[in-house]
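Request: Have a read of the protein record below and say how the chain folds.
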Amino acid sequence: MNRVLHFGRPFAEHIAPIVSSRALDVLIASVAFLAALPLLAIMALLIRLDSKGPAIFRQQRVGRDGKAFTIYKLRTMHVNTSEQPTHLTSPSATTRVGRILRLTKLDELPQLFNVIKGDMALVGPRPGLLTQVSLLEGRRAFGILRSRPGITGLAQAVGVDMSNEPRLLALDARYVARRSMMLDLRIILATILGAWLLPRDARA
C-alpha cells in the first residue's frame, strides 16, 4: 500500500498541472468560440465579398510530438498563394480584408476550435509548416515539440516571428522550461496589450 502511494504521488504531482491547464484551455476556448460565432460569421461574409475562395483556410502544421494536424484560420490571402512562411510571402498576396484581420489577429480566431479538439493550446510555441525542416529539427532538439503548439506564445508576445529562427527557438525553449498558468495569462495579456506585461527575464 505504501509503495503504491510512494510511486503514485510524484505521478499525480507531475500530471495535475497538465490536466488542469488542459481543462482550463478547453473551457476558455469553448466559451470564447461560442461568443465569437457572430463575429466569425460577419468576417466570413466580408472575406467572401472581398475575394474569391473559402472564408476558412486549412493548412497542415506540425503539432505535438512532431505529428501533423490541420490548422484553421480565416483566409487572409488570395487563393493559390504558395504555402510558405508569412515573412517570405509577398504583401500583394494578402487581401484587403486580410490585412485588417492580420493586424488585429482576428484571423487566428478559428484556432479556438483546434484548442477544443486538442491539437493546440491557448498558449504555446506557434506551429510551423511541414516544410520548415530546420525549425522542426531545432524544436525537436530543444524538446519544444513535447508541448502543444499555441494560438499565441512567448515569442509572439515579444514580437519575434519565424524570420528569426535562433531567437524564436530560444524563446520557445524558455517558455517550455518555465511554463505555468500565470505565465500563460501574462503572455495572453501581453499579446493584446504589449510585451511590458511580461517578466523581464522571460523576454530578455
